[in-house]
Predict the structure.
Amino acid sequence: MQRTRVAEILSSEKIGTRFTVMGWVRTRRDSKGGFSFIELNDGSCLDGIQLIADQGLPNYKDEILKLTTGCSIKAVGELAKSPGKGQNVELQAQEIEVLGWVDPEVYPLQKKRHSFEFLRTIAHLRPRTNTFGAVARVRNAMSQAIHSFFQERGFIYIHTPIITGSDCEGAGEMFKVTTFDLDQVPKKGSNTDFGQDFFGGPANLTVSGQLEAEIYALAMGDVYTFGPTFRAEDSNTSRHLAEFWMVEPEMAFCDLEGNMALAEEFLKYIFAYVLDSCKGDMDFFNRFIDPSVIKTLEGLVSQDFEYLTYTEGIDTLLKSKQQFEFPVVWGSDLQSEHERYLCEKVFGRPIILVDYPKEIKSFYMKVNKDGKTVRAMDVLVPKIGEIIGGSQREDDYDTLFERIKEAGLNPDDYWWYLELRKFGSVPHSGFGLGFERLIQFVTGLSNIRDVIPFPRTPGNVSF
Ligand code: ATP
Ligand code: MN
């Protein structure tokens, strides 16, 4: 089945050329003059192509006049300049074949705008809407941009494992992987006998590829992973998914300053890429979702990020006299209301906060000379808050050993991670960026469930 994509036809505008298009009917309008306008969308771009179907077509009465939203068709016709408003070109159909009918009584996607909540219940059809088509294309372009950014800079793409025996953050929140019959779990005394399980020990879905990326950075220099990660956190927010994609570069011979510079350059690259390559979709988001997205992204590309320490951030918040739901205290984690206040109200731009108290950050972050703070960095953006979390990693064996114990973890479980500090240790740094948070930021969509094709959240896995 040979066809030309609508995106290609609309961008080349080859008047007089015969094309075959295939796609789904968005609308049909019949004119008194004995012909119909059919808007056909094939997902290749936001715009559909307008087909002109004349009553002279053999199936005009029996089929074309019965076409409704959602029907799939094949049309062959000649491209012509369009006299009408709203499109430059149209296809004058010489042949239209109906591939699949729709019963309009039961087809859930009608012309009217549906709520995002409703569309989440029909994840098998929502990609046919303008919004979800645009999200899918922007998501695709951003994935491409992520790879080009790192590949252009000589980073090696590493496929870190999905199933792991280690828990990166040292905390809970992991999904277990097992082949046990859950009604008859083998026991050793009162404990589960994981020795009898598939892997001969407990296994989980990864929460981050960082630790494995560090292994490769300490052999290959600059590496990155980009893949799915899983968190069983029961946080039902508009920014958390149980399955989300993470981008994690890891660089040997790199300190926190190098890490911050890369994070800023990376975000600017992605924003510029999307603005340049997804014009139609970005205009759509700007018109229908958030009238400030394009201006915000353009501003970010040309603006320097603000750098400040966690302590300076806390001082600024305390001096602001602003009432927050959560109190501002040195030593506790910033809530997203605090992060957003700093970005939106105080600085009006993205900020990178560094040197957090070690108690609220992970064991692997390098301890500063003050002994109280660690070389952590969070990149905060307006409307979302934290979008990137990263750090310079602890590269001193003894300090790391102590930090693992302080975190209540067993150093034996991290023997290989510790050995990397024993055999040719080097300063190294990296960060993790939540891909869906970035897409939220770029598209202006307020709920993270709407920027991933099939969102997994507490209580929802069926679709
Ligand atoms: P938060 O405080 O928002 O839960 P975090 O501190 O747990 O974030 P990290 O462990 O540093 O986040 O993960 C790195 C990045 O992954 C975050 O900056 C964020 O962009 C993204 N992220 C973290 N948890 C989720 C989640 N459940 N769903 C989607 N993205 C997430
Ligand atoms: Mn979290």
Q: What stands out?
A: The radius of gyration is 27 Å.
